[in-house]
Design a protein that fits this description.
The chain is α/β, with parallel strands linked by helices and 254 residues long. The chain has eleven helices and seven strands. It has a single domain (5-253), classed as Vaccinia Virus protein VP39 (Rossmann fold, 3-Layer(aba) Sandwich), CATH 3.40.50.150. It has helices at 5-8, 12-25, 43-51, 64-73, 109-118, 137-146, 149-152, 166-173, 196-203, 207-210, 215-232, and strands spanning 33-37, 56-61, 79-82, 96-100, 125-131, 179-191, 241-253. The mean pLDDT is 96.
Length: 254
């Protein structure tokens, strides 16, 4: 996958909001060693550094362009490392593993999340936010379109990302946690600009799809997607496009 930091940051405020909500829920928890998994452009990692100024913080991401943006914009002493979360192992047991809008890209949460909790220091916290919007028109229409005979071959094997139902995280993590909170929130995002939902999706969910197409074909595909989304997400009389977006949150203390 090739991420485009500028496209991702087009909606920086709406993308930051759930990370702030997760952070607030952590309360006054102290942390000397923090890892931000799937740190992307590093703006959330920067928030962690401001919240815990004395902590040693490492941002982990697999994408070169996102890490370059992170190291160019966030202030030191955050350490940036390129790694795949699926195989990443903490070198020393962190007090906090934070992950905003990244773990849904990984398979097998029944293995992954217990493994992350197992890497925490005793009393340490795993704090996770993930999109849970896969049944919304934005995602369903993308799946339908990508499954059309004309596109099916190009998108063979592309993974959109996935999360488990909230109750499954509860059942999975309760035996491993002295404190566990699981919640979901729908953000009624009022986006600005033309084709706002397509622009949003180009920054995230569409990344692995567009990676399969040359520029000309991508233009055709986006035109078809844009036409369908314009019906599903009409502009409001005030010019905004409302894009309700459901997210799931987990705080598990080892
Ligand atoms: C939607 S961005 C979120 C970035 C950041 N956490 C934020 O909230 O702004 C998702 C990030 O997860 C990273 N990512 C996805 N799968 C990954 C994996 N298996 N290992 C490491 N990073 C991954 C992507 O490269 C991307 O930078």
């Amino acid at each position: 996958m090739n991420w485009d930091p500028e496209q991702y940051l087009k909606f920086v405020e709406a993308r930051r909001r759930p990370a702030l909500d997760l952070l607030v829920r952590m309360g006054g928890k102290s942390a000397a060693s923090i890892v931000d998994l799937g740190c992307g452009t590093g703006n959330i990692t920067q928030l962690l550094a401001e919240h815990w100024p004395a902590a040693r913080i490492v941002g982990i991401d697999s994408d070169q362009a996102m890490l370059e943006k992170a190291s160019a914009t966030a202030s030191p002493p955050i350490e940036w490392r390129q790694a795949d979360i699926a195989t990443w192992q903490a070198t020393d047991a962190p007090d906090l593993i934070f992950s905003n809008a990244a773990l849904h890209w990984l398979d097998d949460h029944r293995r992954l999340l217990p493994s992350l909790i197992g890497q925490l220091a005793p009393g340490g916290v795993l704090a996770v936010q993930m999109p849970a919007n896969f049944n919304a028109p934005s995602h369903r229409i993308l799946l339908e379109l990508a499954g059309d005979p004309g596109w099916q071959e190009a998108f063979e094997g592309v993974r959109m990302g996935a999360v488990l139902p909230a109750a499954e995280y509860h059942d999975l993590l309760t035996p491993l946690s002295q404190r566990l909170e699981v919640w979901e929130t729908t953000y009624w995002q009022a986006l600005s600009g033309d084709d706002a939902v397509v622009e949003w999706m180009k920054g995230t969910t569409l990344v692995p799809y567009l990676a399969r197409l040359d520029m000309k074909t991508a233009k055709h595909f986006l035109a078809a997607y844009r036409a369908r989304l314009a019906v599903a997400y009409p502009r409001r009389p005030d010019g905004h496009t409302l894009f309700p977006f459901k997210r799931i949150f987990l705080i598990a203390q080892r």
